[in-house]
């Protein structure tokens, strides 16, 4: 099971074949055209991003632990590869909790969680 992150509006999502899992506290800003499963455990509280949020969010991840989150993600994705979604465009420099999760996951499991847009861009660079 491989995990990626992305934003709802990323144009390559619909054809990606990945299970789309929302970890956003707000719905997509526009119609997405694909099925999205919500995973509340990874959704942020109603707190602005910043040092205090980071600490609280990471503490919550620690409380749940890798085993529980892994089991639940595996259940939601049917064991397949998935992409965790939110609204922010981190490639353009916006901050989002999905990257906090990605860093935490990599630290705890040794498994990198890449931003899907970066992966696709890298593949296109190799092909062209």
Could you walk me through the main structural features you see in this protein, from its secondary elements to its overall organization?
There is one protein chain. The chain is α/β, with parallel strands linked by helices. The chain has one domain. The protein contains three helices and five strands, in the order βββαβαβα. The protein starts with a strand and ends with a helix.
| Number of discrete helical segments | 3
Radius of gyration based on Cα positions: 14 Å
How helix-rich are the residues, as a percent range? 40-55%
Query: What characterizes the major β-sheet?
Result: 5 strands, parallel
Distance between the termini: 29 Å
Proportion in β-strands:
5-15%
Order of strands, widest sheet: 3-2-4-1-5
Decide which structural class fits the backbone.
alpha/beta
Low-confidence stretches: 123-128
Number of strands: 5
Structural shape:
globular
Domain count: 1
Task: Give the SSE order as H and E letters.
Answer: EEEHEHEH
Average pLDDT score: 88
């Amino acid at each position: 099971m491989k995990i990626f992150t992305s934003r709802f509006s990323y144009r390559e999502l619909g054809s990606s074949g990945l299970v789309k899992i929302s970890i956003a506290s707000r719905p997509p800003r526009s119609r997405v055209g694909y099925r999205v499963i919500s995973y509340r455990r990874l959704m942020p509280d109603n707190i602005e991003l910043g040092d205090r949020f980071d600490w609280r969010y990471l503490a919550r991840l620690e409380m749940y632990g890798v085993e529980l989150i892994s089991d639940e993600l595996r259940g939601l994705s049917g064991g397949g590869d998935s992409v965790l979604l939110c609204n922010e465009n981190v490639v353009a420099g916006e901050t989002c909790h999905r990257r906090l999760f990605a860093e935490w996951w990599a630290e705890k499991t040794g498994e990198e969680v890449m931003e899907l847009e970066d992966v696709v861009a890298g593949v296109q660079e190799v092909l062209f």
